[in-house]
Amino acid sequence: MHNTIRETVAVDFEAVNAFIVEQLHSNVELVENIGHYIIGAGGKRMRPMLVLLAARACQGASDNAVKLAAVIEFIHTATLLHDDVVDMSSMRRGRPTANEQWNNPSSVLVGDFLYSRAFQVLVSINHMGIMKVIADTTNTIAEGEVLQLLNKHRTDITEQDYMRVIRDKTAVLFEAAAYCGALIAGADEVVSQNLKAAGLHLGLAFQLVDDALDYDGKAEDLGKNVGDDLAEGKPTLPLLYAMQNSDSKDSDLLHQAVITGGAEQLDEVIRIISQSGALEYTRKRAHEHADLARQHLTTLPASEYQQALLQMCDLAVARVS
Predict the structure, then answer these.
(1) Which stretches are annotated as coiled coil (predicted)?
(2) Residue 204 is part of which domain span?
(3) What is the DSSP string of 59-106?
(4) Domain CATH number, residue 296
């Protein structure tokens, strides 16, 4: 399914990849090495694809849409570099993280380079409305990351608290990708707002499934270690639901695992989460957001690009990796 979506904007997508390589040029060798390492690791590239599909769905393909897709990917990649340092992660996309391969200071500083390069490209696009959206989005992502940090090892987090974190940390970049794709294409307000809302709900669905996969995925499929969220003390929805819907003995074990980051109890935690119905609940919530995204997308004119956007909603919730 992912390849079918990509084929819809294959020419644009190749142009984005070429532009990214061009923009990674630096006179400092380490910047290029780390930049190429993490961008070259692949990933689904859902966010830049969202820009391209949104622009095409609004009949507005252009060089600026390609540049904008690269901007979104640079911002996403910068957050990954910083996240892996904060979370002390050692594996991403099936290979060592940049901080594991090099070191923490290098990862942070190259992340800063990618952020600033993104804004250099934005200036060349010369669209003040898009500049504002991206500036506000990166600020919200930073707040979301801090909020997630503050919530670590806490067991008094509500589902509402959790949803705010994934909205700010993940979903707003999907929202910005779809919205700015519409803006760069000169779409009218109604179409732009529908794409914006679709992007947000798609991002929420994507992150909810990601958090479920942390407890029932396979490391070789995920490209990262199963149970990373638990090891980092992140109270994600599967844990929160299981704490609320298990007997007192199991609930106490989960509370302690969150407080201590009890990765050594991972098998027991997975058993409790599986028995509680938490994974089904998390995926149900993901499907609800994917359905909301679809509702907004069905307002767009019918085209192969609209169909590909609808397929992205299916892809977000159908993932096993």
Answers:
(1) none
(2) 2-318
(3) T---HHHHHHHHHHHHHHHHHHHHHHHHTT--EETTEE-HHHHS-HHH
(4) 1.10.600.10
Model confidence pLDDT, tens digit, residues 237-290? 999 999 999 999 999 999 999 998 877 888 899 999 999 999 999 999 999 999
Q: Which two tokens stand for residue 215?
A: 């407890």
For strands 91-92 and 95-96, give the pairing.
antiparallel
Q: CA neighbours within 13 Å on the CB side: how many for 130?
A: 28
For the chain, the domain total comes to 1
Local structure of 95: helix, strand or coil = strand
Instruction: Please identify which residue in the block is written with the tokens 């302690």.
Output: 256
Q: Are 69 and 52 in contact (CB under 8 A)?
A: yes
Who's near 236: CB < 8 A, 6+ residues apart?
162, 211, 214, 229
Q: Are 141 and 79 in contact (CB under 8 A)?
A: yes
pLDDT in tens, 123-169: 999 999 999 999 999 999 999 999 999 999 999 999 999 999 999 99
User: Hey, what are 166's tokens?
Assistant: 């994934």
* Verdict on whether the full-model pTM lies above 0.90: yes
